[in-house]
User: Which sequence fits this backbone?
């Protein structure tokens, strides 16, 4: 693989809300007003989602990784506003207890949002391989995404609508 090559991708359709009751309105939920699948992360509470992916077999197992977050806001914003996204990774390797929380520490990005509602924007979260929980070629991993609504950088109005994540070799 080379720098810029896609190693894995996670679409909103393949992710689910995280919480004590995944069907509760207190957890991230599927966006109902879009013709495509999105996950809505509320602006008034920290919400979370998780999804699984398989690392590409051509990944060298040590290179740095970038995760591109693609999304939009469900309402218009004025001026320069940001949404704060935290991502943490858990490697799923043979012999691991998948019932335990084995996530590496979260890495974060504050993404400048588009001023128009429903307009796509992107931000990138940089990881070393160790921060990506040491995931190796052909191994499954779980990506945990959260909107950190009470972080000082998160001042965007409305729900953040996650389209998906792209994992790229740096």
Assistant:
């Amino acid at each position: 693989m080379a720098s810029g090559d896609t190693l894995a991708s996670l679409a909103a359709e393949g992710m689910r809300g995280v919480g004590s009751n995944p069907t509760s309105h207190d957890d991230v939920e599927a966006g109902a007003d879009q013709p495509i699948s999105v996950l809505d992360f509320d602006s008034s509470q920290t919400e979370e989602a998780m999804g699984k992916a398989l690392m590409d077999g051509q990944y060298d197992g040590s290179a740095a990784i970038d995760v591109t977050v693609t999304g939009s806001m469900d309402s218009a914003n004025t001026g320069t506003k940001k949404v704060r996204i935290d991502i943490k990774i858990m490697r799923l390797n043979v012999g691991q207890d998948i019932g335990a929380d084995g996530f590496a520490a979260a890495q974060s990005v504050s993404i400048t949002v588009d001023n128009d509602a429903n307009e796509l924007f992107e931000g990138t979260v940089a990881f070393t391989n160790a921060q990506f929980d040491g995931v190796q070629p052909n191994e499954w991993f779980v990506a945990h995404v959260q909107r950190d609504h009470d972080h000082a950088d998160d001042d965007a109005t409305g729900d953040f609508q996650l389209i998906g994540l792209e994992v790229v070799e740096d």
Summary: Residues 14 and 51 are 6 Å apart (CA to CA).
